[in-house]
């Protein structure tokens, strides 16, 4: 179930056998919601029944949100551009796979999220524990198994059931992930029997998910970059930032990691297509907000266009673009796993109203220009994510939020720093920040800076 627009509204088309049902949700007062989102972490809620997902700090989840395609004539054979191409495209997680795929995942160095092929809603409450035990049996000690796919986009009516499933996974597969992905804020709100979320607000939806399901992480999807015509439509652009900051706030409140599912295809025929700039933008803004995983919807084309793998099974230009962006995330992600996100800020004027503005705790200001020689007057907006390590060293990720113009940036810190170094997104090497000439950021791209 994915979103589709009508003028002034966000709609969802539900494709059911013999039935097409469309429900509407008016976008109202979304900018005001951002003003209520804290840019800095609040008090973490410590709960004994919340067990955050743990894995090696050297592993950063990059997931193709799709099922691996098999040859219809030979069901046990992966079709052209299957798991090998996923590894080649610099993904670190294969999803969603079968038990038969685990040996190849291990060979390719891919973590795996197994699909359990279970309609949970058909089970009685007392059946869930035993069914989870049966389904995960034989895979719990497999090091390639990151977790198990449980459900996509549940409403609150499913939360009690999901709480029992998560508890059973923790019981029978300790350390493995019960994978559940949430709606974005633009799903319909209201009474449980009349809306998709089943709550009055998105914040209530997230809070109830934490309290009732006791998840190990938060995953949500948001395709507003494509829907906004590359950030030209204000309402859709605002939604993207709101969802990112609100999920960040709630995840920090409860000490849980969050993953963002973003778009790597033309999500609808009337929307823009993937580009090096908008793919990088989605990845880098997730990293700058402290995200601990990036997922791409979707790898195989099926009913979409401009996907990484087309309907003939061949790689597309999008695959090449995505391979480069994934490589950068694969290099920078493990570095950022070692850091704590302490704030998110934007340069003035921000890309949409009510976003938190600099100064932050580390960065006082960042000068941005598309033309140091003054040929044009353009100051691409920037997002600044602030971080610290266990030693108290400061780090910042700065993202060029323009999808049209490169940005030359010069930063001013709150305190004098003797060392200002940039991490190479190619191999993680450190090199001095060019303070005299400024550092150039291509459209949509980011930079990780170490300050000491």
Features:
four-stranded parallel β-sheet, alpha/beta, TIM Barrel, 452 residues, 10 helices, 26% strand, six-stranded antiparallel β-sheet, 2 domains, Immunoglobulin-like
Structure description:
- The protein folds into 2 domains: 29-338, Alpha-Beta Barrel (TIM Barrel); 341-451, Immunoglobulin-like.
- The longest helix has 21 residues, at 234-254.
- It is α/β, with parallel strands linked by helices.
- The protein is globular, with a radius of gyration of 22 Å.
- The protein is built from 10 helices and 22 strands.
CATH topology of the largest domain: TIM Barrel
Say which CATH homologous superfamily of the largest domain is assigned.
Glycosidases
Major sheet, described briefly?
A: 6 strands, antiparallel
Total strand count, please?
22
User: What average pLDDT do the residues reach?
Assistant: 90
What's the arrangement of strands in the largest beta sheet? 14-16-17-22-19-20
Contiguous helical run count: 10
Radius of gyration: 22 Å
Structural class: alpha/beta
CATH architecture of the largest domain, by name, is: Alpha-Beta Barrel
Helix and strand layout, with pairings?
Elements: E1 3-6, E2 9-16, E3 19-26, H1 30-35, E4 62-64, E5 70-71, E6 74-78, H2 83-88, E7 93-97, H3 102-108, E8 111-115, H4 125-136, E9 145-152, H5 159-172, E10 177-181, H6 202-213, E11 218-221, H7 224-227, H8 234-254, E12 258-263, H9 276-288, E13 293-297, H10 317-337, E14 340-346, E15 363-369, E16 382-388, E17 394-400, E18 407-413, E19 420-423, E20 430-432, E21 439-441, E22 446-451
Parallel strand pairs: 4-13, 7-8, 8-9, 9-10, 11-12, 12-13
Antiparallel strand pairs: 1-2, 2-3, 5-6, 14-16, 15-18, 16-17, 17-22, 18-21, 19-20, 19-22
Helix pairs in contact: 4-5, 5-6, 6-8, 9-10
